[in-house]
Amino acid sequence: MEEELLSSGNSKSAISQLCTRISQIHQSTLDKWTPHSHARWGGTILLLILFGLRIITKQGWYIVTYALGIYHLNLFIAFLTPKIDPAMDFDAEENGPELPTRANEEFRPFIRRLPEFKFWYSVTKSSVVGLICTFFECFNIPVFWPILVMYFITLFCITMKRQIRHMIKYRYLPFTHGKPKYQSHEESAGKINISPK
């Protein structure tokens, strides 16, 4: 009896160790991919193109496509939204926006509700799940797809209009392109041209 308990305990321990090891390998791989944003997004775009080609060639799984589009829209909105929503901050309602509006105010960087890496990871995982769903006929529910397309376009326009109004009202920009980049002292000293008199 004790031998059976020990053997079952050992098998549970071995399974637990295997799961832990797989989780460590998975996390290590994700950590290695973190700095390579262009390559990550390139792979995800290729995956989405593959998904789209499968939908077009097989002429089905429109419900899966619609659900995937709605999920990606929700992720995109979370990506554009600040972590601390100024609309929920009562001080911002009374005293104006919390973000600095003058040069002498404290700089506070834009912190997203959904960071870029988690956004990419969620989009990739959901795209893989959507692609896998296209191999099962039970998910191919017959539906008149132009209605889904029109509904998605309408929902996208309404949601983005609300998000853009929110950005304008609280004066924030969720992208970092075009912001000033500062040089180190060594770089600026190397560019100084001292001419003899």
The level of helicity is 55-70%
Low confidence ranges: none
Which descriptor suits the 3D outline? Answer: globular
Mean pLDDT: 81
Rg, rounded, reads: 25 Å
- How many helices does DSSP assign? 7
- Describe the biggest sheet? none
* Structure class: mainly alpha
How far apart lie the N and C ends?
Answer: 98 Å
Percentage of residues in strands: under 5%
Number of strands: 0
The run of helices and strands is HHHHHHH
Would you give an account of this structure?
- With 197 residues, the protein is mainly alpha-helical.
- The protein has a domain at 60-175.
- It is built from 7 helices and no strands.
- The chain is globular and about 55 Å long.
- The protein has helices spanning 2-33, 37-58, 62-80, 90-95, 116-133, 145-170, 185-190.
- The protein starts with a helix and ends in a 7-residue tail after the last helix.
